[in-house]
Amino acid sequence: MEIKTDIQIAQEVEMTNIREIAAAAGIDEKYVEQYGNYKAKIDYNLLQDKKDAKDGKLILVTAISPTPAGEGKTTTSVGLADALHRKGVNVMAALREPSLGPVFGVKGGAAGGGYAQVVPMEDINLHFTGDFHAIGAANNLIAAMLDNHIQQGNALNIDPRKITWKRAVDMNDRQLRFIIDGLGGKVNGVPREDGFEITVASEVMAIMCLAKDIDDLKEKLADIIVGYTYDDKPVTVRDIKAQGAAAALLKDALKPNLVQTLEKTPAFVHCGPFANIAHGCNSIMATRMALKLADYVVTEAGFAADLGAEKFIDIKCRKAGLKPSACVIVATVKALKYHGGVPKADLAEENLDALEKGLPNLLQHVENVTEHFGLPAVVAINEFPTDTEAEIKMVEDKCRELGVNVVLSQVWAKGGEGGLALADEVMRLCEAENHFRFVYPLDISIREKIEMIASKIYRADGVIFEGNAQKQLKQLEALGFDNVPVCMAKTQFSFSDNPTLLGAPRGFSITVTDLKIDAGAGFIVAKTGNIMTMPGLPKVPAAEKIDVDNTGRITGLF
User: What pTM, to 2 d.p., does this model score?
Assistant: First the structure.
């Protein structure tokens, strides 16, 4: 039997006009700004007008440590929302926008998969409504105004060697990581070292995700530290008077995007920083809007529970006053075998020994969610066609032996119908005892916060502050930035900062190489290991397979 690709499935579905989807979600027509027939932005005044409405229940979907086999976190999120929809529940999904970098790089799209997708899949994975372009433009406007200030006399006494603000482009382009610009003589600027981040790693993206309204957006933009003076005083966007123009570029991008699933469930898809280098959650505005409109909201946090879910709890929930009702931890047989030592090429073959060896990765994530986040949780085994009955049974039996809730999810193959058992369990958990808590308090030192995350969540023996990190630690505390959350920038492939240490490693330390304050977003970024904010393309990029025909039909997206 031929297995259809994600894009084939998405292109065969007959979509409903987005106005009908909005109406079904309880969104008055006056808030709907259409982008064609199947996408719309929803005016943020809806939040103000519905401020007294009761919030629905928030369901977080996270996963085990990712592998090349894929885990299907977005697929599970969409399928769960569709399953709840089938049960007659008033439900919405609140998901992240994909970055062009992974779409053209190694991961492919991020709109779900199989029969659990959001559509129009091609638009969502490519330019969508232009949000990321607006974020990149705002980022680069700040960079241009900063360099122009130095060129025009440097009244703020900015040290060009201490500029921390980078330019941004939403593409995997390693060539731009480190550059020298301002060359060509006096009229062309001040020569200095510079570099690019991928747009999703920009602080502007984090601010978009964490802003509560347009005024809050403008204040957060103004607070961004772009560099330091010759006498080590911070220079902000407010100092170079760029916040108003940057906010003007972002005023439409701040409005959440409404789309639909293959089964017509309404879904917000809005913003999306990488969870390995940023906080990895969709926007507070989209999540809040969904909670005011629906009884159940299914949302996701990037990568595994040690990254996206931890930051969802300690950064997003803390800043937005959110309290999740339940958590779903997605796992696949293939990924667990990979964590058990099976090479990618052999993952389709049954291997119960490797599967058992890989299970500790899943169990550590479950323990983190239930013990350290205090949330009722269920493991969703995202079924693949190559999984055998014996493999599925082993995961179910091992989980149940340890008292871990587990449900087989077949949403990839069956859409919402394949997620009905998961929906039942999630609805039950939403009424269960909930001891939601943060991993660390805010009123301890930066070092102590990092050490608590490393010991509790990663199971590290300790934290080593290397190179500039020791000096930066003292500088940030002297500047009064010790009372904000910490955003760990760490490889997504391992609990450690070494991507080759799979499973649930022990006997390792976390090495912090750089500390930076994102004062606008309101957190400290702690870079560990060899993490980078500008990825590169693989030897064979996914872009090589993407094409468009003379009718405008796109192929090769997955």
Answer: 0.96
